[in-house]
Each structure stands twice: as structure tokens, then as C-alpha cells.
Write a structure and sequence with these properties.
Number of helices of chain B: 11
CATH superfamily of chain A: ACP-like
CATH class of the largest domain in chain B: Alpha Beta
Largest sheet of chain B: 11 strands, mixed
Order of helices and strands of chain A: HHHH
Largest sheet of chain A: none
Mean pLDDT of chain A: 90
Strand content of chain A: under 5%
Oligomer: heterodimer
CATH topology of the largest domain in chain B: Peroxisomal Thiolase, Chain A, domain 1
Number of helices of chain A: 4
Order of helices and strands of chain B: EHHEHHHEHEHEEHEHEHHEEE
CATH class of chain A: Mainly Alpha
Strand order of the largest sheet of chain B: 3-2-4-5-1-6-11-10-7-8-9
Structural class of chain A: mainly alpha
Shape of chain B: globular
Helix content of chain A: 40-55%
Chain lengths: 84, 354
């Protein structure tokens, strides 16, 4: 899991052009949206594409997004549970 | 239609921001592709917003911010920009991701940022400006079209202060594509040697420049923009000269009233004839100035010329780096810009001292 979280952080930084951030700046359990990393709705779309492109996982139900993208750990857990 | 140039902001391959220097310390390069000297964007943009922006968007936001500060106008009554290529870097990114990912997994950011009107939209978003906002995409007439709209807006009383700008960026891919159609020189030419080149092709350039046009006369203004003419595919040199004569006559002026003429000489044997004929004929008594060795050739290079001419009038100075031959006048009252992009899209600006 830790390895996946570390990899995911690198992918998020690259996909969202978070140039000023390093992996260690992202809290595993901190919120991605709002107060945490301050991501917004366009970033949410970028993360959905990231999951599909890099892990072959489609977020079929948009309502699940809030739970999946709560933190890097919840994203990693979702990937682990759904990776084909 | 006339307006005053109240403020300017420009990002170019020269040191044109954050310095009182006026081209006394020219950046020379032996490359055939000139790239802009970019500022620290943290001074102009929230990093959260900047992360999604391509280079030309950031350069344009910075240039427009400098223009707002320079003019003392925080909120324009209208925003008009001109660009031939739009946000090319993001467009390339988006198109290549379509190909690379077999038309799947398309991310929204590069698409959103790839449209030509992104720059004028982003400037408006930064300012929360809900006023008239327009982007012109007309190849070598893009910037000139934005200026014409600005002049018309002021003439019709629809605005007191309007922001007009031109922006285009060069990318490695676009350079290579244009190289295949003969835009660029095959041999490397140094900056100050471009004017002596006797081969076809020019050197590539880029830039973002913004101007605050105003109906308010002030001695603090850079210059008065008195007329703008588009000359599309002129039939002959005589045609060019007749159109310029008409333009000057409309303002009660003659060729000998032009203290200086800024030419769009780009070192391309195929297109420089029109400028040389004007320089050695109709305007033989005017100080001759050129600029594309400093900014390169690009579709909205007229914006660099307008910055140069405006500063020449305000500072009453012709920098040695842009002078062809000798100065013919000690003071500058009227300056004409004659510029074109690859022969077809030619235009003339008439400026006077405030």
C-alpha cells in the first residue's frame, strides 16, 4: 500500500502540474479538495482520467467520487480494491 | 478614429519589462528562434491558477498586469486580443494526447486552455471584468484587428479605456513545421546581422504585448494613435505607396512629415523589397528603424513595433540597436510603422507625439 501511495503522489503531482509540491508535502490522509491540496472540479476530472489511464479503473458512479478522492490513501485503497 | 496610448506592458525576447532601459543592452543570439525573457510569474499569478496555464497565457497575464499598472487603469472598459496561433503549446499537448491515447483518456485542462480566446478570458477572470471581450484570429492581421476594434470602441463612445493586445508563442514543433514551408533561414544568422542577410527565410520570434488605449489626452501618454490601415496582398509597390499617401492625406500629412518610419524588415529576401523601396524612396528623408532582429518574425509582431514606436515618441529617442543608417531628425513628432507578415498581411500605424 505504501508503495502505491508513493507512486500515486508522483502521478498526481505530474497530472495536476503541482510544480511546487514534493511527494512528502502531501499528507496520506489529508483532504485533496478544499482545505487540503485545494484541488477543484477540473482536478477531479483529471484524477478520474488518471485512474482510467494508469490503472484501467473507470469511476462509473460519480457519487462515489467524493469517497474515492477524499485523500491519497482512499484513492490508493480504491485502486487496490478495483484493479483488474 | 484616434486614441492615446496610456500604458504598455510587454514580454519579449528583449529586456522590455522591469527596467527603465530602452534597448541599450540588446540581447543578441546566434539562434534562429528567439524566445521571450520571462518574468517570475509568482509576482503576477496565484500559483494555484498558474499551474494550469501554458507559457503564453502566463506571459500575457504578466504583460497585461504590467500594462494595468503602467496606465493606472485597474479595470478596462473592454478587452481585445489578437493571436494567430492561440495557446499553441496547450493545443499541441491536447492534439498529441488524442493521438497517443487513441482518442481516449482526454484530460480537460489542456483542452480548456488551448482555445484562442483563453488569454482574453483569463485576463477578464483575473480582473472579474464582465465587459466586452473579444479575440481576433486573423494570421498577420490579428493584433491589428484588435487595435482597430479598440479604436472603434473609443470612437463610438463605448469605452474610455480599452485594453488591446497581441500574443503568439513559438514551440519547437511549430518551428519545424514552418521550417518545412520555408519560413526560416537555413543558415544561422546573428541578431545584428539579420538586416544584411541576402537569403530567403527569417528568424522565428514570439511575444506578448498589451496597450491601454484611452480617449483621455495627457502629456503622460506614450503617443497618439492616429490611424491604422490594413493592406492585404498589395498589387504593387505603387499600390502600397498610394495607400500610405491616402492614409497620411486623411490626417493632413505628407511623407516628409514622418520623422521616423519603423519597418518590418525581417531579413527575408522575398519580402524586404517593399520596405527597402519605401525607405529609399518615399521616406528617404525619414529616420529608418527596424525591429524584427530583436523580436523575431511572428504574426503579431506589430505589437512589438507599436511598443517601440510609442517609446520612441515618449522618450524622444531612437535606440542605436534599431537604427538603419543615420538619424535624419533630432526630435520625433510623427512616426509611421509599416509592417507585414510574410508578404501578404501588411499594415500601417500612424503615431504622433502627445
Amino acid at each position: 500500500m505504501d508503495e502505491l501511495i508513493d507512486k500515486l503522489k508522483g502521478e498526481i503531482i505530474e497530472q495536476l502540474n503541482l510544480e511546487d509540491l514534493k511527494k512528502e508535502d502531501i499528507d496520506n490522509d489529508g483532504p485533496l479538495f478544499g482545505e487540503g491540496l485545494g484541488l477543484d472540479s477540473i482536478d477531479a476530472l483529471e484524477l478520474i482520467v488518471l485512474l482510467e489511464k494508469n490503472y484501467g479503473i473507470k469511476v462509473a458512479n460519480p457519487a462515489d467520487g467524493k469517497k474515492i478522492f477524499q485523500s491519497v490513501r482512499t484513492m490508493a485503497q480504491y485502486i487496490q480494491d478495483n484493479k483488474k | 478614429m484616434e486614441a492615446y496610448i496610456k500604458g504598455i506592458g510587454i514580454i519579449s525576447p528583449q529586456k522590455t519589462f522591469d527596467t527603465p532601459d530602452f534597448l541599450s543592452d540588446v540581447v543578441e543570439t546566434a539562434s534562429n528562434s528567439l524566445r521571450c525573457i520571462e518574468p517570475s510569474y509568482k509576482d503576477f499569478l496565484n500559483p494555484t491558477l498558474a499551474r494550469r496555464m501554458g507559457r503564453i497565457i502566463k506571459m500575457s497575464i504578466a504583460a497585461s498586469s504590467i500594462c494595468f499598472k503602467d496606465s493606472g487603469v485597474p479595470m478596462p472598459d473592454a478587452i481585445m486580443t489578437g493571436t494567430a496561433l492561440g495557446c499553441l503549446e496547450d493545443t499541441e499537448k491536447f492534439l498529441f494526447s488524442i493521438i497517443d491515447n487513441d482518442e481516449q483518456f482526454l484530460t480537460p485542462t489542456s483542452f480548456v486552455q488551448s482555445t484562442h480566446n483563453t488569454v482574453s478570458g483569463q485576463i477578464a477572470l483575473q480582473l472579474k471584468c464582465m465587459n466586452y471581450n473579444f479575440t481576433y484570429v486573423h494570421k498577420g492581421f490579428s493584433f491589428e484587428s484588435a487595435v482597430l476594434d479598440g479604436l472603434m470602441t473609443i470612437a463610438e463612445g463605448n469605452g474610455n479605456n480599452v485594453l488591446v493586445g497581441g500574443h503568439d508563442e513559438m514551440t519547437d514543433k511549430y518551428y519545424r513545421v514552418c521550417d518545412r514551408v520555408g519560413y526560416w533561414k537555413q543558415e544561422t544568422v546573428s541578431t545584428m546581422e539579420l538586416i544584411n542577410s541576402k537569403t530567403s527565410g527569417s528568424i522565428a520570434g514570439e511575444g506578448a504585448a498589451f496597450f491601454m488605449l484611452s480617449n483621455h489626452a495627457s502629456a503622460e501618454n506614450y503617443a497618439k494613435l492616429r490611424s491604422l490601415k490594413f493592406i492585404y496582398k498589395p498589387e504593387s509597390q505603387q499600390d502600397v505607396e498610394n495607400r500610405i499617401m491616402e492614409m497620411l492625406a486623411e490626417k493632413g500629412l505628407k511623407p516628409e512629415d514622418m520623422d521616423a518610419v519603423v519597418y518590418g524588415i525581417n531579413g527575408d529576401l522575398r519580402f524586404d523589397g517593399v520596405y527597402n523601396d519605401l525607405k529609399d524612396g518615399m521616406f528617404k528623408n525619414s529616420t529608418a528603424v527596424y525591429f524584427k532582429h530583436l523580436c523575431g518574425e511572428y504574426q503579431t509582431s506589430g505589437s512589438f513595433a507599436l511598443w517601440l514606436a510609442s517609446n520612441m515618441l515618449k522618450k524622444q529617442e531612437v535606440p542605436a540597436a534599431v537604427l538603419i543608417g543615420e538619424k535624419k531628425h533630432t526630435s520625433l513628432k510623427n512616426v509611421l510603422i509599416y509592417n507585414g507578415f510574410m508578404g501578404d498581411d501588411q499594415s500601417a500605424f500612424l503615431l504622433s507625439q502627445c
